[in-house]
Amino acid sequence: MTTTRWLALAALAALPAAVLAQNQQALYTASLAATCANCHGTQGKAVDGSSVVSLAGMPRDYMVTTLKAFKDGSRPATIMHQLAKGYSDAQIEQIATYFAAQKK
């Protein structure tokens, strides 16, 4: 077997593992975002007429900055400062990326 064929075969063999890892990451991120649904609605779409902010389509960088401000206490809140403390900075970035990708 030539080196090129061997490399192609090795790459194909690794593909299912890479796809599985990507799917697991997507599920993990969606589960993090689902924790916001009680207040901010399914997929970040708050109920019309509520005083709660919709997260769907919110700019990623704005959401990261806001969540980190809740986390460090520099932005006052009734509950968000407590919830944000439960997330690592990496998780905050994942949540923000997820909601930024959702349609308003």
Quick summary:
This protein is mainly α.
Protein architecture, described:
With 104 residues, the protein is an all-alpha fold. The chain is built from five helices and no strands. Helix 1 packs across helix 5 (89-100). The protein is elongated, with a radius of gyration of 19 Å.
Helices and strands, with pairings:
Elements: H1 3-34, H2 37-40, H3 60-72, H4 80-84, H5 89-100
Helix pairs in contact: 1-5, 3-5
Percentage of β-strand residues: under 5%
By CATH, the superfamily comes out as Cytochrome c-like domain
Q: What about the largest sheet?
A: none
| Gyration radius over CA | 19 Å
CATH class: Mainly Alpha
Structural class: mainly alpha
Gap between N and C termini, in Å? Answer: 53 Å
Q: From N to C, what is the helix and strand string?
A: HHHHH
Question: What is the mean pLDDT?
Answer: 87
Approximately how much helix is present in the residues? 55-70%
Q: What are the segments in which pLDDT stays under 50 over at least 5 consecutive residues?
A: none
**CATH architectural type:** Orthogonal Bundle
- Into how many domains do the coordinates divide? 1
Based on DSSP secondary structure assignment, what is the total number of beta strands? 0
Tell me the overall shape.
elongated
DSSP summary: helix tally: 5
Properties at a glance:
104 residues, mainly alpha, Cytochrome Bc1 Complex, Chain D, domain 2, 5 helices
